[in-house]
Automatic annotation (TrEMBL):
Keyword field: DNA damage, DNA repair, DNA replication, Hydrolase, Magnesium, Metal-binding, Mutator protein
EC number: 3.6.1.55
Enzyme class: hydrolase
UniProt protein name: 8-oxo-dGTP diphosphatase
Reactions it catalyzes: 8-oxo-dGTP + H2O = 8-oxo-dGMP + diphosphate + H(+)
UniProt xrefs under SUPFAM superfamilies: Nudix
Biological-process GO terms, alphabetical: DNA repair; DNA replication
Lineage, broadest ranks: Bacteria, Bacillati, Cyanobacteriota, Cyanophyceae, Nostocales
Taxonomic source organism: Chlorogloeopsis fritschii PCC 6912
Length: 143
């Protein structure tokens, strides 16, 4: 008899790479309990039925950090399967508009430079976001 392994659940996630006027990126740390606890991430969350990716990102950032952002250009879309979950991350560059970030749904947050990102432990799927940011940065600097 041929048994099939059940597929892990699939979540579509809107992710924000939030830049401030000092060219720093906002990252937050997941609570220590739960899946991937204690790892750093680019903030975002699950898209709700009928919601656009832009609306999802704006809503999630307001709910998680209490700030208003402008969702900008698409950076990368990543499909990644962990043992327990399949995720599709739709990542956009965003600008911080108003508000002071608060750790509402995370343990802490930090504004960091692109070069500092390698000092933080991220979930595997987020590594591709960092690579895309570095590639984007090189293209901008090459003019």
């Amino acid at each position: 008899m041929n048994e099939t392994t059940p597929l892990p659940p699939h979540k579509i996630i809107g992710v924000a790479v939030i830049w401030n006027d000092k060219r720093q990126i906002l990252i937050d740390r997941r609570p220590p309990t739960g899946v991937m606890g204690g790892l750093w991430e680019f903030p975002g969350g699950k898209i709700e039925p009928g919601e656009t990716i832009f609306d999802c990102i704006k809503r999630e950032i307001y709910e998680e950090l209490g700030i208003v952002i402008e969702v900008g250009e698409h950076l990368i879309t990543i499909d990644h399967t962990y043992t327990h979950l399949r995720v599709t991350l739709t990542v956009h560059n965003c600008c911080h508009i108003t508000g002071i970030p608060q750790p509402i749904e995370c343990d802490e947050f930090r504004w960091v430079s692109l070069d500092e990102l390698e000092q933080f432990a991220f979930p595997k799927a987020n590594v591709q976001i960092i690579e895309a940011l570095r590639l984007q940065h090189r293209k901008i600097n090459e003019g």
